[in-house]
Every structure is written in structure tokens, then in C-alpha cells.
User: Fold this.
Amino acid sequence: MGSLGSESKPNKIAVPAQDIVINNISKRNDALFDETSMRFIKIAVNLSQEKDLKKLMNLITNEAMQLTSSARGTLYLVDRERHKLIFYVTNQLSFNEITIPITPESIAGYVGVTGETLRLDDVYELSEELPYKFNKSFDQRTGFRTKSMLVVPLSSHKNEIIGILQLINKEDGNEIIGYNNTDLELINAVGSLAAVSIENALLYKEIESLFEGFVRYSATAIDERDPCTGGHSRRVVLYSVGLAAALGTFSQAQIKEIKYAAWLHDIGKIGVREAVLSKENKLTATQLEVVKCRLSMICEMMQKDAYNQALQLMASKSSGCDSMILQSLKENVTRFRDEVNADYDFIVQINVPSFMTDEKIRRLEAIRNKKYINTQGQSFEFLSHFEYENLMVVRGNLTNFERMEIESHVTKTFEILKHIPFTRELKNVPEFASKHHEKLDGTGYPNRLPAANIPVQVRIISIADIYDALTAQDRPYKKAMPAEVALKILKEEAAGGKLDQDLLDLFIKEEVYKLSDDPASVGE
Assistant:
């Protein structure tokens, strides 16, 4: 029989306690590294997406504070032109823009001048030999105690300092401690991302300011070309943006699109003759003077012909009839001149834009049919066809041809704007700007669009445009309407299905029409 042997078991390998500790630390470090890496990726994405400079400042400050457990954070932008640091963001407290000189006397100023990073454990214990000093006035006003600080310059790709990031009071539980090397490395990394984002945001802002300046002054140039509508575009922007904001359904980008469309809604007037744009009355002063001179010439001609006829008559009759002939001559000449003067006074009266009644139309037609034929058989009309056509305008001061030319400005607006490479956010500006004369009932121009094809943005600009046209103080050919009269007309238009009733109700309820016409702030 074979002997029974014991079953062998593998020996356990003993792991030293020190190795276990090292392994755990390594795992924690790996986890911390992964967490930090993911956080940096998130920060990079957030910074790259934000275009608004002040929001970007706030984002940078908050991220830097969280990474370093800081109680406070401040971000300055460097203004080289004014040689100042501009205070844009602080955490928890709200300020208006504050500037400080870029000089080595202040902590932030020193960093701005030298480009050095400062890591200070207690700003109340700075050496007197240092060129910079801590300003205690903020602490004294608020009761806050500033202790540790980390101040880092943010440099552009040209190695120019564009900002200063200042972190205050690193917290470790309830204790304020100094910033360490890890904090410095983290902030340098964030600072590099932040500097690129700030530079991009500044460039974006400069391009946007350049474009907005071009848009504003293009609109201003059009308004100046038409002295009767000076400031019109600015006020249409004011009312359009105000109504869009009151509606509360548009994003800031969409409101900006409305703003630019409002600024440019009359840009097509650049293609309309200046004589038509600036036409105040039916006939210009020069044209009216031509009528006056013609009628005066006819009167003189009639008088001359009458005297010649009288002389011929007196030569063929006895002298006893001379006085009667002369008296009759004078009466005829006076009567003719009085009639002509009355006709001219009537022409002057109807030359000013007003409604032409049937009676006025009949009298003008009678004048148009008048002509004087002199003794040589030459015929002289009282009015030319051009003068008659202009004076016969029933409402306003524009002939049908001139009105068509004015109305063509919306088509010209679209033709001009469609060639501008607008950004995606502004792609609808040509459409919105060129449709502001369309009516919801399909009676508008240039395309007689139905309501379904007229966007809300266009309806907003239409209300703003009509209200300002009715109430503008700068139109010499008509008196400005009081607001209540203009609103009554708008209500009638809305009731007739031409304007958006809901938008008009909001325009009135929110008193958008009372917004202050301040050229410095319109469209901001």
C-alpha cells in the first residue's frame, strides 16, 4: 500500500507595509492627476466658448479660485493707452469699473510693470524695502482681512502683459495659509489658457466694435443725406431693441440681429435721388419761382397786347372815345392780373403737402387748362405737365413715380446687404431689414407678403419705424404728432390687420415709445 502524503499548499508572499502605503499614494496621485486633467479640459472648453469679455473674466477668476481654494479673486485688464489696470471682476462683491495706475507702488501694478509673479504669505508684513506696498483701504472699509496673495501676469502670444490675476487668502479649513508651488503651477497653466481666451475675446470685441461703428455711421450717413429723417435710424434701433427685450423670447444674439437690421433698414436710400429724399413740398422753391415768373410774364404780355389793341382801336375812332377805351383796358388788365394772382396764391397753398379735396382738384384742373394766346398767335400754358402732375398729388408730396423710387429703397437695401458676409448669428439681417414695409394683410411692399412670411423680428421693426415716422421732430414738411395720436393711428393699423396687435399692445403696455433717445447709448 502506498503511503498517504499531505497535500502541499502554495506559500503566500508577504508584501511589506511600506509598499502598500506607496501603492495607495500612487493610486491617489493618479486619481488626483486624472481629476485635475479632466478639470483642465473642462476649463479649456469653457474658456474657448465664451466670447463675452466680462463673462470670461468672471469665469477665469472663479476657476482660479476653485483650483487654489482662494477666498477672493480679482482680474485686471491692462489698458496700455491709458496706462492703467482696469478692474473688471471681483468675487462676491460688485463694483463699477475701477482703474489703478500701472506703477510699481501697488502690488498689481508692480506685476504689470515687471512681469514678475508675486507669492506673498502675509501682505501686512511686507518689508519696507520692497518697492510695492499693500493698500489697506479696502480691508478697512469692509472689515475683510487680506493675508496671503498670489499675483500672476497673463501674457499674450506676443509676450505682452494683457492682464493680472490676483488671488487672495488660500484657505485650509478655517485657516488662511500661503500659496505653494502646486498652486503656482496650476495658476500658470490656467493663466496660459486664460491669456489666449482674453486675447481672442479682445480681438472679437474689437472686430465687433469696428463692424458696429461701420453700421452706425453708414446709417447716420443715410440719415444725414436725407435731412428730413436725421436720427431716424437711431430711434428705430431704440424702439426695436426695447420691444424685443420686452417680449422676452429672444436671446442676446437674436436681439443683436434685430439691432443691426434696424440700423440698416434704410441703407437702400443711398440709391434714391437726393432731390426725392429731401423733397419737402410738391414743387421746390425754384420750381415755384418758375411758375411765378411765367405767370408774371403772361400778365405783362397780356397788358402789352391790350395796349397795342387799344392804340389801334383809338386810331380808327374819334378821340372822344379814347377815355372809355383806356378805362376798359385798365379794367380788363386789372381783372386778368387779379385772376392770375389768385391762381398763383392757390398754387402756393396746395404746394404744401395736404389732402386735395374734389374742389381743389377741379380748380387745379381749371388752371391747368388755362392758356394765353398773344397777338402773334403764340400759346402760353399757365402750368407745365410736370408742375400739374406734382401739384395734383392727393396726399403727401410725392408723385407716383417718385413714390415708386422711394419704395425701391427696400429692394436696394436687400441688394446691398446680401453681399455683406454676415456671421451666422447675423445671417437674417438682409431679410429683416428689407421687409419692414410689408403688412400682415398683404398690402405692403415690395412683395406684398402674407403674414405667415413676415417674421416677428420684421414686425417689431415695422412698429418702431412707423411710430418714429409719425412722431419725429426733425421733419420740416410736417408737424410731429403727439404720442397719443401716433399710437391711435398704430392701433387703427393693427385693427385693420396691417400690424401685429400683440406686439403693439406690448409696445404700449411697456411704454417702449417713451425710451430716451440718447445717441450715446442707443443699441447698447
Residues 285-397 form one domain. Residues 181-225 form the longest helix (45 residues). Residues 1-6, 89-95 have pLDDT under 50 and may be disordered. The two ends are 106 Å apart (CA to CA).
